[in-house]
Design a protein that fits this description.
Layout (H helix, E strand, L loop, with lengths): L11 H13 L3 H6 L3 H6 L14 H12 L1 H11 L7 H7 L11 H12 L7 E4 L5 E2 L3 E8 L4 E7 L3 H22 L8 H15 L2 H14 L6 E2 L12 E5 L9 H7 L3 H19 L1 E3 L7 E4 L3 E4 L5 E3 L2 H15 L3 H11 L7 H14 L7 H14 L6 H20 L5 H16 L2 H35 L14 H30 L3 H24 L2
Parallel strand pairs: 5-9
Antiparallel strand pairs: 1-3, 2-3, 3-4, 4-6, 7-10, 8-9
């Protein structure tokens, strides 16, 4: 249990505030299970301004989170995007979380801003509107004009925020370790992974240089496209707590009256927005993680502007390939392909394959035919994962959230828009390029290089194993699930090791000679050796 006497002394005050707020909103089970009741009694009681008896448990948690500030709001927003972890009653309530707060007066912002700018604002800006355009829990945004005449946006971190967030993250990290140790049943919620994601996101937002770099990363992706606009960063005035960037003029995609009056082609814009998002995610592996209407602007010439890059998502090449296979399986209505991708993502979990197969077939049947609601499809997909005790990898959960948000924006532009169908051509082109002769050749060359590297290491590994066997220093760890199976297991393991050593030695001796014949011959012989060895191992496995 979490013994408050041994929690970091410097965070005791914040710990008391957290416990008091949770108890005030009736979230007492969490406080009791973490052993925080005594701390809460010592803290100043925070009385909610609502009648909590009339609120459901998810509503109480959501109100408590909003009271506790940006760290908890960010965690709640992450969980709201995870229907693979939480039931609809929780995700729907947590989706109501917002980071809009009352703005801090200019008198408190000004000293920090001028300290970071290195002088009075009047020496840098010809105009500065001290009424913020937006006030969120992390930063406030102002409109200004440089002495050179350029219109800019000035983003300023809220003073004193870092200290509170760092304390929250330390306490959350400690609580996460307790949860993992004390309640293994919470393992499927991936508490440690969620904490890593939360901490990474918040520390990224606390450094506005990180946001500026994100902005330039996205700008580089669209450097050859004049229909996608990303604001320019003014690096001479940008620092950890201040971001100065170009002011982008445009109309939000949900302002239908202004869009219609300006004569924009909303169908074309929906397609362009989709192409841009897919280019970021599927082609480049770097994408805007929160493309909501406030972060997209429609500009003259049917152009689209992206702003606010506090958080971006990244996908490895392997993950992008998996995602392509998933979308390809959906497009082909292939339940077996869908199931294969899910199993690839399942990690260490052990799902019921019969149930998973039935769920995959039912999913395909539900989403076959007419125009699809892509947001509903992805939400249903993540729900299917939860019902089969599977959790999505965090990077894909971020992407799915972005896709759902983007789909909602595109539907506001074009109510008949089908992002799933619009994604089809991009997915097929990407799949074709990956599995073309050229693409496969690159993969074969990579495999050949990997085999050669493994072969070059085998003599050392085999020699080390033999030395340790002679010295009696080989340690074997065995998990005993049934003593009656132990003898047979050791016999089979010994036989397999013997065969594996023979195959490894064979491959090692042949490798240098066949490398002289060129990569194709080496790969061919190496593959034959592997197939023969695997065949022997399979036969041994059957002889129980």
């Amino acid at each position: 249990m979490l013994k408050t006497a041994f929690v970091a002394a410097r965070d005791r005050q914040r710990l008391g505030e957290i416990a008091s707020v949770l108890i005030g909103f009736g979230v007492t089970k969490v406080v009791e299970r973490l052993g925080l009741a005594q701390v809460a009694r010592l803290a100043k009681r925070r009385t909610p301004q609502v009648d909590i008896a009339r609120l459901s448990q998810p509503q109480r948690v959501r109100r408590a989170i909003e009271t506790l500030g940006p760290t908890f709001v960010k965690l709640g927003q992450i969980l709201a995007s995870r229907p693979d972890l939480l039931t609809p009653e929780w995700t729907e309530e947590l989706e109501k979380l917002h980071s809009q707060v009352s703005p801090i007066p200019w008198e408190r912002i000004r000293p920090q801003l001028e300290e970071d700018l290195g002088g009075p604002a009047s020496e840098i800006f010809a105009e500065f509107d001290t009424t913020p355009l937006a006030a969120a829990s992390i930063a406030q945004v102002y409109r200004a004009r440089l002495l050179t005449g350029e219109e800019v946006v000035v983003k300023v971190l809220r003073p004193g925020l870092r200290k509170t967030i760092e304390a929250d993250l330390r306490l959350m990290g400690h609580a996460t370790r307790i949860v993992v140790d004390e309640w293994p049943e919470f393992g499927r919620y991936q508490p440690q992974e969620q904490m890593r994601h939360l901490a990474s996101g918040l520390y990224g937002e606390l450094d506005l240089i990180n946001e500026a770099r994100n902005c330039e990363t996205i700008a580089a992706i669209f450097a050859d496209r004049d229909d996608i606009v990303v604001p320019k960063i003014h690096w001479e005035w940008t620092s950890e707590r201040v971001l100065v960037q170009e002011f982008v003029h445009g109309i939000p995609p949900n302002d239908h009256a202004r869009l219609d009056a300006a004569g924009y082609d909303k169908v074309l814009l929906a397609q362009k927005g989709t192409d841009a998002f897919l280019q970021m995610a599927l082609i480049e592996g770097v994408f805007h993680a929160d493309p909501h209407p406030g972060n997209m602007l429609i500009m003259p010439g049917n152009r689209i502007g992206f702003i606010d890059f506090g958080i971006i998502g990244r996908l490895s090449q392997r993950r992008r390939t998996q995602l392509l296979m998933l979308i390809g399986a959906m497009l082909k209505e292939d339940s077996d392909g869908l199931m294969a991708v899910l199993l690839d993502w399942s990690g260490s979990s052990n799902p019921d394959l019969t149930k998973l197969e039935a769920s995959s077939q039912a999913f395909v049947a539900r989403h076959t035919g007419a125009s699809l609601d892509f947001g509903a499809l992805l939400t249903d997909f993540m729900t299917m994962a939860r019902e089969n005790d599977l959790a999505m990898p965090t990077d894909l959960a971020i992407l799915f959230k972005g896709l759902v948000t983007a789909d909602g924006v595109m539907r506001q532009l074009d109510p008949g828009f089908d992002l799933f169908s619009a994604a089809g051509p991009t997915v097929r082109r990407k799949l074709a390029s990956q599995f073309s002769i050229k693409g496969l050749t690159r993969k074969v060359e990579a495999v050949g290089a990997g085999l050669f590297g493994a072969a070059s290491e085998l003599p050392t590994l085999i020699h080390l194993m033999l030395v340790r066997l002679k010295q009696g220093r080989v340690t074997v760890e065995i998990e005993l699930k049934g003593i009656e199976k132990l003898t047979r297991g050791i016999e089979r393991a010994a036989a397999r090791i013997a065969v594996a050593l023979i195959v490894a030695a064979f491959a090692t001796q042949l490798a240098p000679r066949f490398m002289d014949l060129g990569t194709p011959a080496f790969i061919t012989v190496g593959a034959m050796v592997c197939v023969i060895g695997i065949g022997w191992l399979v036969l041994l496995g059957r002889n129980k």
